[in-house]
Specification:
- The complex is a heterodimer of chains A (about 280) and B (about 150).
- With about 280 residues, chain A is mainly alpha-helical.
- In chain A, about 70% of the residues lie in helices and about 0% in strands.
- Chain A has three domains: about 1-105, Serine Threonine Protein Phosphatase 5, Tetratricopeptide repeat (Alpha Horseshoe), CATH 1.25.40; about 105-185, Serine Threonine Protein Phosphatase 5, Tetratricopeptide repeat, CATH 1.25.40; about 185-280, Tetratricopeptide repeat domain (Serine Threonine Protein Phosphatase 5, Tetratricopeptide repeat).
- Chain A has 15 helices and two strands.
- Chain A has a two-stranded antiparallel sheet.
- Chain A is elongated and about 70 Å long.
- Chain A starts with a helix and ends with a helix.
- Chain B is an alpha+beta fold and about 150 residues long.
- In chain B, strands 1, 2, 3, 4, 5, 6, 7 and 8 form an eight-stranded mixed beta sheet that branches.
- In chain B, α1 crosses α2 (about 100-115).
- Chain B is globular and about 45 Å long.
- Chain B starts with 6 loop residues before the first strand and ends with a strand.
- The chains are: A mainly alpha (about 280), B alpha+beta (about 150).
- The interface between A and B is medium-sized, with 27 and 29 residues.
C-alpha cells in the first residue's frame, strides 16, 4: 500500500508538478519515510534534482518542496528550502513558520541557519543570539555560512551596542578559527568587524590595527577602507583618511564588496554604499 | 503631512495606493527580482534607518507597536517605482499583526521619498522591471532597522 502511494505521488510530481499542491492537501502523512537512505533519496529527487533546477521565483521550486512535504512531512530541509524564496522576498510570516518547523525537526542543522537569517536578513539580533546560543549547545564548534556561531553573536551584540559582550564573542570566534594549534588564519571579515567594534568603542589604535590586518588579506575591501578612513580621521590624519575613503569609493565602483554569500539579498551590519563614502569625503 | 494611503485588500494580500498602471515603455520588459539585478536601494541600511526615523519624528505623532512593516513593489525598467504596493505586517515574532494605519501611512510616505532606485538590465543588456521590497523593523513605534 505504502509503495503504491509513493508511486502515485512520484507520477504526480515528475511530469505535472503543478498538481503537487493538490497532492499536499490530500495525502495523509502516513507514508513511510523512516530510513535515512530513503529520506536521502527523496531529498535528492525533490530538492537537488527537483526544486533546485529552477530559480527561487519559479513556482516549481515551491511545488517540489510541497511534494516532498506531502510524501514525508518530517524532512526538515523541505521546509527550509520552501522558505528560501519567501525570506528573500520579505515575506517573514510565511518564511519563519517554515524555518521554525525546520529548526524544530532538525535543530542540529537548521537552528543556526535560522539564527543567521535573523542576524542578517531581519536584523532580529536578540532572536539571533538565542538561536546561536542554542545551536552552540548542540554543536559547540559549528559553522554557518563560513563563520563560527560566536561570529554572528558578536555581530548581533555589536549592532545592539553591547560592546563588552561583542568583544567576548569575537574572542571566541578568533579562538575557534585559530584552532588548538593556534595557527589558523582569521577570516578577513572577523578582522573587519573587530576593527569596527574597536572604532565604535573609540579604541582607535586597535581599530586601525585590525582594519589594516583585514586589508592585508583583502586590500579592496570597501567597507574596511571606509572605516579605516574614519579611524584615521579620528586620529587626526586627514591625508590617510582621504586616501582610504577614496580607495573605498574606487573599490565599490569596481564592484568589490564585503564578500559574503548573501550580500545580494541583504545588507550586512555596518555595510556601506557609495553614498556613505561620498558623504564622508565632503 | 503624510497623505493617507488608499488600502486595497485583494485575494493575494493587502495593498496600499492605486493598483492602476500607466502606459509605460517598460510594459513589455521582463521581470526579475531585486537580488538578480543588484536592485537594492543605493544607501546603507543605517542611512535609511536614520532618514526613516527622522521622517517619522517630523510627523509629530506618537507611534506604537513592535514588529515589521514591509512594502513590496515593482521598479520599472526606468527606475520608477510603480504605485501598486503590497503591505505585509508582522509582530516581532513574525506572527500576523496590524500596526495602526497612521504608522503604515507614514512609512509609506517615507518610501515615496526614495527616488533613486537603480534602473536594471538583464545579462543580455535588455532593460528589466524588478520586484523589490523595503522592510522597517519597528520597536515601540521607532524604526530600529531598515531591510534589506
Amino acid at each position: 500500500m505504502g509503495k503504491s502511494w509513493l508511486l502515485f505521488l512520484s507520477l504526480l510530481a515528475a511530469p505535472a508538478v503543478g498538481y503537487c499542491q493538490l497532492a499536499a492537501t490530500r495525502v495523509a502523512p502516513a507514508a513511510p519515510c523512516g530510513t535515512k537512505q530513503y529520506r536521502d533519496s527523496l531529498v535528492a529527487k525533490y530538492i537537488e534534482r527537483g526544486a533546485q533546477r529552477f530559480s527561487y521565483s519559479d513556482p516549481r521550486w515551491t511545488q517540489y518542496c510541497d511534494s516532498l512535504i506531502a510524501i514525508c512531512p518530517t524532512i526538515a530541509i523541505a521546509y527550509q528550502q520552501k522558505a528560501v524564496p519567501l525570506i528573500k522576498d520579505g515575506k517573514y510570516e510565511a518564511a519563519f513558520a517554515l524555518e521554525n518547523k525546520a529548526a524544530q525537526l532538525d535543530p542540529q542543522r537548521w537552528l543556526a541557519y535560522r539564527g543567521f537569517l535573523k542576524c542578517i536578513f531581519t536584523k532580529d539580533y536578540e532572536g539571533a543570539i538565542l538561536d546561536f546560543q542554542g545551536a552552540t549547545r548542540l554543536n559547540p564548534a559549528g559553522r554557518e555560512m563560513d563563520h563560527t556561531y560566536p561570529f554572528f553573536e558578536g555581530l548581533s551584540h555589536l549592532e545592539l551596542k553591547k560592546y563588552a559582550l561583542a568583544e567576548a564573542d569575537f574572542k571566541r570566534d578568533m579562538a575557534l578559527q585559530r584552532g588548538a594549534a593556534g595557527k589558523g588564519e582569521l577570516h578577513f571579515n572577523t578582522l573587519f568587524y573587530v576593527g569596527v567594534l574597536a572604532l565604535e568603542q573609540k579604541k582607535y589604535g586597535q581599530a586601525k590595527a585590525y582594519l589594516q590586518q583585514c586589508l592585508q588579506q583583502y586590500s579592496n575591501h570597501p567597507d574596511a577602507n571606509y572605516y579605516l578612513g574614519l579611524t584615521y580621521r579620528q586620529l587626526g590624519d586627514e591625508k590617510l583618511a582621504s586616501q582610504h575613503l577614496r580607495t573605498a569609493g574606487q573599490a565599490l565602483a569596481k564592484g568589490y564588496l564585503l564578500n559574503e554569500d548573501n550580500l545580494y539579498y541583504a545588507n550586512y551590519p555596518h555595510q556601506i554604499t557609495a553614498y556613505e563614502v561620498q558623504q564622508a569625503m565632503r | 503631512m503624510v497623505a493617507k494611503g488608499q488600502t486595497i485588500v485583494l485575494p493575494d494580500g493587502e495593498y496600499i495606493d492605486t493598483t492602476s498602471t500607466r502606459q509605460s515603455p517598460c510594459a513589455k520588459a521582463a521581470f526579475a527580482r531585486y537580488y538578480s539585478v543588484a536592485g537594492k536601494y543605493p544607501r546603507s541600511s543605517e542611512t535609511l534607518r536614520q532618514a526613516a526615523q527622522a521622517f517619522l519624528a517630523a510627523q509629530h505623532h506618537t507611534y506604537e507597536g513592535s514588529g515589521y512593516v514591509t512594502f513590496r513593489f515593482i521598479i520599472d525598467c526606468q527606475g520608477q517605482r510603480l504605485a501598486r504596493v503590497q503591505v505585509l505586517q508582522t509582530d516581532a515574532a513574525y506572527q500576523r499583526y496590524r500596526f495602526r494605519p497612521e504608522l503604515v501611512n507614514a512609512l509609506y510616505g517615507f518610501l515615496k521619498t526614495l527616488t533613486e532606485w537603480p534602473a536594471a538590465k538583464a545579462r543580455n543588456g535588455q532593460p528589466v522591471n524588478y520586484v523589490a521590497y523595503l522592510s522597517f523593523k519597528i520597536t515601540d513605534g521607532k524604526v530600529v532597522a531598515v531591510i534589506p
